[in-house]
């Protein structure tokens, strides 16, 4: 049974994972804390992205020889496979760790089995400490591993009467500057930002992450820009520039597009397409979360935020559970998930 030192260490490991990097594509976020026999923190480690040290290896390197006889508290079951780095289970065994406590079991069949390897080496293993918090840390990654497709968050901005554009087609800016900055923070957590050719042609967006001065972040810090649809884009379209990677998916088939992204190890898609593309995702049951920014203005006419979502009667409505309501600038951000969907 985990003691108070181990519980505190797990909370520290969870925070270390959150603080280290908002996006570790295509890997999960993981934190690790090493404790001495009296509960003193020896070292804290975290994973910072593919090719970098895993959290356990990071903590072990910081602890050095002090890791011998320690307890490792890890947010995710230590991996048991050779990828870009070696198996964490073997590293823990080699370091002389005597006990391992972890939160979430690894859902990836290629990496699972770490707990069994540790037990076989005579290490005491405890599972499930703060398991719900550990699972929430990697909610989208876990979903993608289990389903084989990315987790899809649909973001939209609308007036209080549900319009995403005015009667003349104008839509900039329905929401506030604060909401647009908030969207930047959400984009940074995703592996890909997806729009349809309709939005790409109408708005000529960049779909890039930008700093506080409005300049694009470095290329290697940008999510993949994905354009779905068969129409060509102008050569000088902003989505064709070199500020971020761009993928053209020349299909209208939403499930096949997500299958392609899943094959590319994209774990979390931020859907910013127009009302028809969002409707197509919803009609296929492929919206896993909605983040809506509602502005305190009325338009009366113009495009609805969502169309053609496969709903003919109220009984067929896509019913959601609201998980968060936050005031952002002059707007309200509403987050909701399908209430019958398991992550």
TrEMBL record:
Sites where the protein binds NADP(+): 157, 173, 199, 274-280
Protein name: Riboflavin biosynthesis protein RibD
Function, as annotated: Converts 2,5-diamino-6-(ribosylamino)-4(3h)-pyrimidinone 5'-phosphate into 5-amino-6-(ribosylamino)-2,4(1h,3h)-pyrimidinedione 5'-phosphate.
GO BP term, pick one: riboflavin biosynthetic process
The entry's keywords: Hydrolase, Metal-binding, Multifunctional enzyme, NADP, Oxidoreductase, Riboflavin biosynthesis, Zinc
Protein's UniProt keywords contain Transferase: no
Cofactor(s) in the UniProt record: Zn(2+)
SUPFAM superfamilies: Cytidine deaminase-like (SSF53927), Dihydrofolate reductase-like (SSF53597)
PROSITE patterns named among the record's database cross-references: CYT_DCMP_DEAMINASES_1 (PS00903), CYT_DCMP_DEAMINASES_2 (PS51747)
Source domain of life: Bacteria
Binding site for Zn(2+): 54, 79, 88
Known EC number: 3.5.4.26, 1.1.1.193
NCBIfam families hit by this protein: eubact_ribD
Cofactor binding annotation: Binds 1 zinc ion.
């Amino acid at each position: 049974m985990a003691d108070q030192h181990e519980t505190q260490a797990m909370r520290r490991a969870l925070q270390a994972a959150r603080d280290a990097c908002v996006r570790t594509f295509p890997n999960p976020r993981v934190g690790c804390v090493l404790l001495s026999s009296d509960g003193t923190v020896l070292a804290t480690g975290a994973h910072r992205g593919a090719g970098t040290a895993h959290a356990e290896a990071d903590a072990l390197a910081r602890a050095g020889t002090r890791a011998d006889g320690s307890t490792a508290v890890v947010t995710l079951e230590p991996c048991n496979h050779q990828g870009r780095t070696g198996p964490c289970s073997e590293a823990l065994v080699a370091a002389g760790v005597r006990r391992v406590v972890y939160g979430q079991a690894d859902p990836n069949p290629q990496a699972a089995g770490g707990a069994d390897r540790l037990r076989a080496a005579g290490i005491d293993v405890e599972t499930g400490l703060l398991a719900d918090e550990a699972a929430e840390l990697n909610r989208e990654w876990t979903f993608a591993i289990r389903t084989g497709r990315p987790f899809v968050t649909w973001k939209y901005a609308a007036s209080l009467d549900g319009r995403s554009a005015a009667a003349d087609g104008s839509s900039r800016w329905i929401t506030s500057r604060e909401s647009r900055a908030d969207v930047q923070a959400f984009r940074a957590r995703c592996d890909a930002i997806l729009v349809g050719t309709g939005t790409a042609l109408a708005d000529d967006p960049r779909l890039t992450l930008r700093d506080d001065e409005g300049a694009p972040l470095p290329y290697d810090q940008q999510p993949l820009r994905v354009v779905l649809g068969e129409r060509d884009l102008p050569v000088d379209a902003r989505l064709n520039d070199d500020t971020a990677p761009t993928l053209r998916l020349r299909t209208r088939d939403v499930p096949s597009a997500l299958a392609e992204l899943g094959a590319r190890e994209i774990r979390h898609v931020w859907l910013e397409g127009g009302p028809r593309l969002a409707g197509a995702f919803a009609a296929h049951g492929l919206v896993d979360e909605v983040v809506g920014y509602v502005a305190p203005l009325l338009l009366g006419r113009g495009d609805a935020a969502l169309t053609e979502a496969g709903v003919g009667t109220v009984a067929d409505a896509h019913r959601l559970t609201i998980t968060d309501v936050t005031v952002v600038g002059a707007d309200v951000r509403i987050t909701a998930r399908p209430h019958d969907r398991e992550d």
